[in-house]
Design a protein that fits this description.
Layout: H1 4-14, E1 19-20, H2 23-26, E2 43-45, H3 50-63, E3 67-70, E4 89-92, E5 99-103, E6 108-112, H4 117-126, E7 129-130, H5 143-149, H6 156-159, E8 166-172, E9 178-181, H7 194-198, E10 207-214, E11 216-217, E12 221-229, H8 232-246, E13 250-257, H9 258-267, E14 281-289, H10 293-309, E15 315-318, H11 322-333, H12 335-342, E16 345-346, E17 349-351, H13 357-371, E18 376-382, E19 387-393, H14 400-421, H15 437-443, H16 446-459
Parallel strand pairs: 2-4, 3-4
Antiparallel strand pairs: 1-2, 5-6, 6-10, 7-11, 8-9, 8-10, 12-14, 12-15, 13-14, 13-18, 16-19, 17-19, 18-19
Helix pairs in contact: 1-3, 8-10, 9-12, 13-14
Length: 472
């Protein structure tokens, strides 16, 4: 199929310099972050304004060219990678990178989809506010991508997913119309919630070009600690105690297995095991206090004393300064990097009800140990919201590629069957992309899939918005 007329029209619309067709120029946009998927594209289109984005969508409709929206290309499910046909066009939103407005009294910031998450955080901080979304890729991921996957991160326990941090959207519809829903309202009960329909849709229903995001007051103090525990069950009891004593001050509660932490130490020598003795589980927790550091530390000391007296916590270390706090978070954030250094692994981004986490880990670990003896479990995640990164590493000394070839399909099925048995989700914060389409179809109810397909058909009848993602 030739795209000569389409590409010529795109050049007229946004300028020839922003219609990339040379293989050297397009290559960075065609492979996903994990290098699991590599596609082909007739072009990479880079609009600079919402109006230009809308013009490109209209041209795509006219010429029947499918579009694959892309932000920072940091996704983990192949949701922003084109297929191998070369018939699709990637529409990169990186040039839509303006902060349009900050309203400290309304506690909102209005930004375009291509703004890097870390830049939103910096602009909020300059205004004396906090933008609470925080995740490992924040230096390169974009707000449009965060919204399209409903990203989670480390602050969900207190502040919610990206969906809870968004008040309004600007969206280019699959017909090329521009919907201005940039209303910074906490209450708007005037019909269907179109905003929530586009958030988490991974660009399959329209193109998010801007958003109004919630800001919060900057905390006066943060206190961070590592707590050692005997089991995930003890971690759940510790979470309940922390929520009772700290209430809304609790902003982070991350679970890491002993093997996770030792794996980080193996590949990053500067990050030593934080306790003198081994412990089955380690929790990283953080309190954010609006009063003072003295108040936060006094509360923290009382919490830890109670947890030790009740036998929930075996040992604990509290960060004495900002550098030590950052070191604690670096330990948590280096787990995926250590896994990559260790070799190929089988990743799962799942969620189960918080009360089920201990039982899920025990049951699923046992099933995998029986199916793949010697497999090493790398279990970590956001315990406070039920989201686990439940990953499986090949046995020590076993070729990882051969292990994945032999066991990946069976292990995925074991994990997802266990997730379903615990009434959970096979994708908590990474989305479905093209990675989990078939798995989602297996575990979703037929009525749920029919409703999703009806929405897709109603909004995008030509199936030009990111086809082959989320739904077949």
């Amino acid at each position: 199929m030739t795209h000569t007329a389409f590409l010529a029209a795109c050049r007229d619309a946004i300028g020839a310099a922003h219609v990339l067709t040379d293989p050297q120029d397009t290559a960075p946009f065609l492979t996903d972050w994990r290098r699991r998927y590599t596609g082909a594209a007739c072009a990479v289109l880079a609009p600079a304004t919402s109006a230009e984005a809308a013009a490109l969508v209209k041209l795509a409709v006219e010429h029947r060219v499918a579009l694959v929206p892309q932000g920072g290309n940091t996704g983990l499910a192949g949701g922003a990678t084109p297929d191998a046909s070369g018939a699709q066009a990637v529409i990169s939103l990186r040039r839509l990178n303006r902060v349009r407005d900050i309203d400290p009294h309304n506690n909102t910031i209005t930004v375009e989809a291509g703004v890097i998450l870390a830049e939103v955080q910096k602009h909020a901080e300059a205004a004396g506010r906090l933008f609470a979304l925080s995740l490992a890729a924040e230096g390169s991921c974009t707000i449009g991508g965060n919204l399209s996957t409903n990203a989670g991160g480390t602050g969900v326990l207190r502040y919610g997913n990206t969906r809870e941090l968004c008040l309004g959207l600007e969206v280019v519809t699959p017909q090329g119309e521009l919907w201005d829903g940039l209303r910074g309202l906490r209450k708007d009960n005037t019909g269907y919630d179109l905003r929530d329909l586009f958030i988490g849709a991974e660009g399959t229903l329209g193109l998010i070009t801007a958003a109004v995001l919630k800001l919060h007051p900057q905390p006066a103090a943060r206190v961070t600690a590592l707590a050692a525990l005997a089991s995930p069950h003890a971690a759940l009891d510790f979470l309940a105690l922390t929520q009772r004593m700290a209430g809304p001050l609790l902003t982070g509660f991350e679970l890491m297995s002993d093997f996770c932490v030792r794996l980080v130490g193996r590949h990053f020598e500067q990050m030593r095991y934080p306790f003198a003795e081994a412990h089955a589980q380690i929790v990283l927790l953080e309190l954010s206090d609006s009063e003072s550091e003295v108040h936060a530390r006094t509360l923290f000391e009382g919490l830890m004393q109670t947890a030790l007296e009740q036998g929930l916590v075996e040992d604990a270390v509290v960060a004495e300064n900002l550098a030590q706090s950052r070191a604690f978070w670096n330990l948590r954030e280096h787990i995926p990097l250590a896994q990559a250094e260790e070799g190929l692994n089988i990743k799962h981004d799942i969620a189960v009800p918080i009360s089920c986490i201990g039982h899920f880990i025990e049951a699923t670990d046992a099933a995998i140990a029986q199916a793949a003896p010697g497999a090493r479990m790398v279990t970590f995640g956001h315990l406070g919201d039920g989201n686990l990164h439940y990953n499986v590493q090949a046995p020590e000394g076993v070729d990882a590629t051969a292990f994945l070839r032999q066991h990946q399909s069976a292990i995925n099925r074991i994990v997802y069957d266990s997730v379903a048995a615990h009434r959970g989700s096979i994708s908590a914060e990474h989305g479905l992309g093209q990675l989990k389409i078939d798995d989602a179809a297996r575990y979703k109810q037929d009525v749920e899939l029919r409703m999703m397909r009806a929405i897709k058909q109603a909004l995008d009848p030509l199936n030009l918005m990111n086809p082959g993602k989320v739904l077949r």
